[in-house]
Amino acid sequence: MSIINDGLAAKKQPAGPGRKIAFGRDTVLPWITTPLLLALMILIWDSYVRISAVSPFILPAPRAVLEEWLLLIQSRRAWGHTGMTVYATLVGFGWAVLIGVSLGVAIARIRWLELTLNPFIVATQVIPKVALVPLFIVWFGFGITSKVIVAGVLAFFPILTNTVLGVKSIDDGHRDVMTSLNASRWQVFRRLELPSALPFILTGFEVGIVLAIIGAIVGEYLGGSQGLGHMLIQTMNAFETSVMFAVLIQMSLIGFVFYFSIGFLKRFLIPWHATGSAKL
Known about the structure:
The chain is mainly α. Helix content is 83%, strand content 0%.
């Protein structure tokens, strides 16, 4: 909740010269500090490998990892694995969005439904999701279906909870205004509930997309013959550590693309909100 409160506090600050200067500095600073920190980490990594003379089977040098990654992105087979991971992630995330938002709106608006479903929702979330992966593989096989389900299950809960929180956070006075204007339930949802809850929902999307890709990769670890998770297990069994690092880089880049895509979506859909107007 502190992140939400900080965002609301930032939104309430009056616009002025001092605010514009801070905003510009906040925009430029990450583009300076992030490359510097990344370069420092690589320098420390390379220095440790050289000084300690550690075996490349344990920790390869950054140059070797970069060379393997460049070979990886030139391989059609690697892009096939990447495509399967992306597909499982997006389909699972899409189902989580569809079910999570719909159910979240219904739970927030219908009190008896919340009281009925809340114990079951909590019970399903306290179970470690990774422990369910073998069961999903038994039920749905080693194909893409089990990976999609794992991705969707992991992404579902943050989307649901943020949707419920967003709809419930609407001020009662705003609802009274809509009632006084004789607005229909659909008009209340489209004009009030959806715009007010959208910042919360999109925040749930940011968390959900990260969990979705984790779920897809974990599913590929344990079953199947396609995807970056399966490729990582193959390189581990072959003791190709530098290729393992290259696959990890590929996974990280996909995660960054998904996460920042949600960030750009927030800027497009909620430019009026503090979290949507922030520069990426």
